[in-house]
Specification:
It is a single chain. The longest helix has 58 residues. With 366 residues, this protein is of the alpha+beta class. It has 3 domains: 57 residues, no CATH class; 84 residues, Acetylcholine Binding Protein, Chain: A (Distorted Sandwich), CATH 2.70.170.10; 163 residues, Neurotransmitter-gated ion-channel transmembrane domain (Methane Monooxygenase Hydroxylase, Chain G, domain 1, Up-down Bundle). The strands form 3 sheets. Strands 2-7-10-9-8 form a 5-stranded antiparallel sheet, with no helix packed on it. Strands 1-4-5 form a 3-stranded antiparallel sheet. A two-stranded antiparallel sheet has the order 3-6. One of its GO terms (molecular function) is transmembrane signaling receptor activity.
Length: 366
């Protein structure tokens, strides 16, 4: 009898048909959306062991809500609580326990999917007191920690936005030789601005409507502000370029020294520049040429013509031509100075806005 007892302990186990589960389906998982059982009730069995222990397994797919905190999207870490317990029977009848305290990811058993990485599952047992029923109820809470995989959002949204902003800033502030090129580059910036706005629309469609924008949305808005400021700066430079080419304005000495590092003093002839809208041949020179032409024509017909008068007209015309050439040379020099100043300004804006673009990307790229 003593010899057969261990064999009887090992062999005495019966498989019973589960007629009614102690923990009802609508009470075993709190805050669950739906429970889809994988086995029919006719196929659910329970193991009755020699010591009175009953074991049963009820495989099911449980959908449980999890509040999302999207402030750090797409670099967010979410913690979801799944509570299991009975609200029909108190802890004197049903005591919910867990065999382990922490579950770590295991390939083939517990793992994430293509978007989420499972970090850990922590089990916490607690007893809750119900004031209505005046009883204590046993409950186990599974704290599931998930980390989002940001590779898709970085490659599809964040990296293209950075590339678009970089190309836009380079296109805006590349040194230009004429006004038409500046106008065409402003048009390029507006097209890039529309593309970045489409990126922001894509992010807003992905995320639920909330009072705060996610991290990725803040990054795109910051890039929009950088491109907007760069566009305004490019338009101001374009207007200055247009103004100095339609009026002969000499650049101030302080601006020339600051931008060009030019400490040389210009000649007096260059400083005396007319501020009219354009450089034209003076009316006196045209009249003198007309008088000279008429006078020379009369030389052939008149024998008593004063050659001294013709010579004086010639000298006067030569002086006017010289002054006109000096004015035109002065205007050309001023336009060249302005072109150099605007080129240096373009390079300075290119450096500043590219630095702002990189800083914004580094701050929001985690």
């Amino acid at each position: 009898m003593v010899i057969l007892l261990p064999f009887l302990q090992m062999l005495w186990a019966f498989r019973l048909l589960v007629v009614a589960v102690v923990i009802a389906k609508n009470h075993n998982l709190t805050f669950s959306i739906s429970i889809d059982e994988l086995l029919d009730k006719d196929l659910q069995m329970a193991d009755l062991r020699y010591n009175g222990e009953i074991r049963t397994s009820l495989p099911a797919v449980v959908s449980s809500p999890c509040p999302l905190r999207i402030e750090n999207f797409p670099y967010d870490v979410q913690m979801c609580n799944i509570s299991m317990g009975s609200w029909s029977f108190d802890r004197d009848f049903v005591a919910v326990n867990s065999s382990v305290d922490v579950l770590w990811p295991q390939k083939g058993r517990i793992e994430g999917n293509s978007e989420w990485e499972l970090l850990s599952i922590i089990m916490v047992r607690s007893d809750n007191y119900d004031t209505l029923m005046e009883s204590w109820f046993s409950e186990v809470t599974y704290i599931v920690t998930l980390k989002r995989k940001p590779v898709y959002y970085v490659l599809v949204i964040q990296a293209p936005t950075f590339i678009l902003c970089t190309i836009t800033i380079f296109g805006l502030f590349t040194p230009n030789s004429n006004e038409d090129e500046r106008l065409s580059k402003v048009d390029l910036c507006l097209n890039m601005f529309a593309a970045i706005s489409m990126m922001l629309q894509l992010v807003s469609d992905m995320m639920p409507k909330a009072s705060r924008l996610p991290l990725l949305g803040n990054y795109i808005i910051a890039e929009v502000f950088v491109v907007t400021a760069a566009t305004i700066a490019a338009i101001v430079i374009q207007q200055v370029h247009h103004h100095v080419h339609t009026s002969a304005i000499r650049p101030p000495n302080w601006l020339r020294r600051l931008v060009l590092c030019d400490c040389r003093r210009r000649r007096n002839s260059v400083s005396e520049v007319s501020t009219t809208s354009s450089v034209e041949v003076p009316e006196q020179a045209i009249q003198s040429f007309t008088i000279l032409k008429t006078s020379l024509h009369q030389v052939n017909n008149m024998t008593h013509f004063s050659y001294s008068f013709v010579f004086s007209l010639f000298i006067q015309t030569a002086i006017l031509v010289r002054d006109t050439l000096q004015r035109m040379t002065s205007v050309s020099e001023n336009q060249l100075l302005w072109l150099k100043i605007l080129d240096k300004t373009d390079l300075l804006c290119l450096f500043l806005f590219q630095m702002a673009n990189v800083v914004v990307t580094v701050v929001y790229w985690r």
